[in-house]
Amino acid sequence: MVVREFYDEQQAAGRLRVSVAAWRWATGSGLVPGADAGPGRWSRAVVEAVDAERVRAALRSVGARGAADQLTQALGVPLRCRPRVTAAAVGHLVRAGLLVYLGGEPAYPDVHPDQVAALARRRDLPAVLDRHVPLGPDQAAVRLGVRRLDFDAVVGLGWVRPIGSVDVDYKRQGGVTTITLYSAEDVALLQVARPLVDWRAVRAARAGSRSPLASLTPVVPGRDWVQLGEVARMARVGRSAAVTWRRRHPDFPAPAGGTELRPLFDRAAAVGWLLAHDKIEIPVAMPSASLVLVGAGYRTVRLQLDDPHVVLADVADAEDELSGWSTDADADALGALLEGAGEFGVSVERLTAPGTSPLAVLSRVRLVESYRSGAGGLRITLAWPASMRGTAARSGGVVHHVDLPEDAAAGAGAECGCTGHDCGGVTPRWGCPDHGPAAGGAMEEHIEGGVYCADRVRALTVGTSV
Fold it and tell me: Tens of pLDDT along 41-95?
């Protein structure tokens, strides 16, 4: 009888009388020590020390489709600029070493549900998927938030290049088809690497319309060059910052063309340098804003707008506009609120977006437009008179100033505790004898941060009155 001194995974599983999948999970989860006798080999001592019952009890598996659904759910709802995780993506995650292969077809493997759940809990899950899971053209269009024909235009312009292909058997729908694959990171970086493109207009293109990219000239292979000014735009800094980076960092890309006074740099090299030096980030999600609307009878609707875009008017008799992507459910709730708005219309109690002060609108908010883009998203646009705009107080509501007579000022009296503002108004303290309600009717409320305040600042600067 030959006594083995080392075992591969099949021999180890046979020695313990467990399935190969159970042994794979035991080694992948750390239940048994790693291979100690070479790649894929375990010594006799290690194998014989393993508790076979524990190995059997630890094994559970889920198919690639179930794992993909669990990861998709972890990305959140609705999925905006993020394709669903597919069964094939689970295969890529296994090949990347993020999940343990437990059997089944390698392209669509069985994996352990506990490991899938741990991956789903990772805060960097979107970045992990971008890094390890390539995308077909339809998925790439979703990742970029555009129509398929717009992504085809991107490919035709030479802005992204394939990284591989895969044959997919659609059986009854035409047999085997070769699908070109693209890097999800390259696709996501397009909106950073091409800052001169109006990506909002591309994403908002309506179904059936010509691509806004169709009129652009394809890049010449090997000559996709940018000036320092465009490098700066990628990082959202001034050109002087890019000039400083080039002077201070010896690894800054060398010029690929141009002149000494106007050097040109390879775009891919510039993007790579910016990423390596944390000057830019790969977009992993679409920015969103939280919107709270109040209608008749203090009825409140809360909704989320993805990729919000606010255009503020600079005169009081014009309108501000807010647009963004909504869900059908939120759009229906908004429509119902506007339908029963009553005499004074709908107010924005609070519009909150990262990096900005909360905005409020006193009334007369209306729905200007609602349509479904060619990419399938529902886009809505709200508008309101600029004179209604204000700043939402931290405790809720709208902060007001009081427009004072020219001879009045904050701190006029010894007992005044009112807050003065740059626009010339104050936020009055109720009991203040100079600025409170008892001061009389000469004061008029207007909105902090609104165009009236800006008008007053301009008027005071030129020595006129408003």
Answer: 999 999 999 999 999 999 999 999 999 999 999 998 777 889 999 999 999 999 9
Burial class (CB in 10 A: 0-12, 13-18, 19+), 232: buried
Residue 251 burial (CB count, 10 A): 8
**Burial of 328 from C-beta contacts in 10 A (0-12 / 13-18 / 19+):** exposed
Is the peptide bond prior to 78 cis by the omega test (within 30 degrees of 0)? yes
Decide: 188 and 283 in contact? Cβ < 8 Å: yes
Cα–Cα distance measured from residue 191 to residue 127, given in angstroms and rounded to the nearest whole number: 16
| Pairwise CA distance, residues 386 & 454, whole Å | 12
Is residue 450 within 8 Å of residue 390, measured between CB atoms? yes
Contact 82, 142 (CB under 8 A): yes
CA atoms within 13 A on the CB side of 453: 22
Strands (E), 373-448: 378-385, 389-392, 398-403, 419-420, 426-427, 444-447
Residues forming a β-bridge with 292 = 302, 350
